[in-house]
């Protein structure tokens, strides 16, 4: 589901995921709503999927809208791992 050069972010509700996707697409940033991987889904079954190369712009756009995600995940050696990020990004 997620490649080595991709990331997913989780939010605390499906409404926030949908709002974030609309905001990012309106800003011209590529992302897509996907089912959250079962092993990391916590209360919300949806996630946003995007390329690592867009991460900085995505986080700046979300921060400006006060819509930061709850968690960020990527792949390391084939495993899904949490990535620490600053909410002030």
Write a brief caption for the model.
The protein has 89 residues and is α+β, with helices and mostly antiparallel strands. Helices cover 26% and strands 29% of the residues. The protein has two helices and five strands; from the N terminus they run E-H-E-E-H-E-E.
Give keywords.
single chain, 89 residues, alpha+beta, Alpha-Beta Plaits, five-stranded antiparallel β-sheet, 2 helices
Order of strands in the sheet with most strands: 2-3-1-4-5
Round the Cα radius of gyration to an integer and report it: 12 Å
What is the overall number of helices? 2
Supply the helix-strand structural class. Answer: alpha+beta
Can you tell me the CATH architecture?
A: 2-Layer Sandwich
The assembly state of the depicted protein chains is single chain
Amino-to-carboxy terminus distance: 26 Å
- Global outline: globular
Q: CATH top level?
A: Alpha Beta
Helix % is 25-40%
Low-confidence segments, given as residue ranges, are none
For the largest beta-sheet, the strand count, sense and barrel status come to: 5 strands, antiparallel
What is the number of strand segments?
5
CATH-defined fold name: Alpha-Beta Plaits
Mean pLDDT across the residues is: 91
Overall domain count: 1
Q: Provide the β-strand percentage band.
A: 25-35%
Sketch the topology as an H/E string, one letter per element: EHEEHEE
């Amino acid at each position: 589901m997620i490649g080595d050069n991709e990331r997913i972010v989780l939010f605390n509700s499906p409404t926030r995921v949908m709002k974030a996707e609309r905001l990012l697409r309106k800003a011209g940033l590529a992302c897509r709503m996907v089912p959250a991987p079962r092993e990391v889904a916590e209360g919300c079954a949806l996630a946003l999927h995007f390329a690592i190369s867009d991460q900085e712009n995505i986080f700046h756009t979300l921060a400006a809208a006060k819509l930061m995600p709850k968690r960020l995940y990527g792949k390391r050696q084939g495993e899904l791992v949490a990535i620490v990020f600053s909410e002030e990004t």
